[in-house]
Amino acid sequence: MNFLAHAYLSFNNPSIIIGNMIADFVKGKQILQHTPAVQEGIRIHRAIDTFTDQHALTKEGRELFKPSCGLYGAVFMDIVYDHFLARDLQRFTDVQLEQFAQSIYTLLENNADSLPPVFLQVFHYMRTQNWLYNYRLTDGIYRTFSGITRRARYLEVPASVPFAVFEEHYNVLENCYQGFFPELEVFVKEKLALLP
User: Fold this and answer.
1) Is residue 156 over pLDDT 90?
2) pLDDT tens-digit series, residues 96-149
3) Main-chain phi, psi angles of 62, to 5 degrees
4) DSSP for the chain, written as a single string
5) Which end of the chain has fewer CB atoms surrounding its CB within 10 Å, N or C?
């Protein structure tokens, strides 16, 4: 999953949100630099990623990207899931999504002193370009794909290639989201219920 899903699946718990958002920027023993509650958020993030990677519908979606994008299909699929979450009216109206995005940015800004420096570099762009809201828009997805293809070391195709897959298989990808995400939500709620 990508940033919007990790934020949403923290269910308004500030420490879990922080951990969930920074987890990819915390390596090895660096986890010990964070409070126990934020550490739980980091662990939740990793559990979400494992559940997502192993799910049959995620694998089905990735196969659509694989011929042109190889293993990077996993990265594009994470963005695709955020797109459909952002457009999921059972979870967000347009206004609710904007308010949610701003609340996440504010929380992270207020805790900037405790966040990994590399994450803060990413966060600058996340906030100024309003990534969490713009996943809702197809233009936002194209810009996100462009950022991935620009930075990807082993992917030699322009953003138009995975974006064409996204457009051509939009309904199939949406069905993957609709079947997968409710199961992920239940999984995370069960994990959070076990926390002390």
Assistant:
1) no
2) 999 999 999 999 999 999 999 999 999 999 999 999 999 999 999 999 999 999
3) -60, -35
4) --HHHHHHTTTT-HHHHHHHHHGGG--GGGGGGS-HHHHHHHHHHHHHHHHHHH-HHHHHHHHHHHHHHGGGHHHHHHHHHHHHHHT-TTT--HHHHHHHHHHHHHHHHHTGGGS-HHHHHHHHHHHHTTHHHHTTSHHHHHHHHHHHHHH-SS--S-THHHHHHHHHTHHHHHHHHHHHHHHHHHHHHHHHHT--
5) C
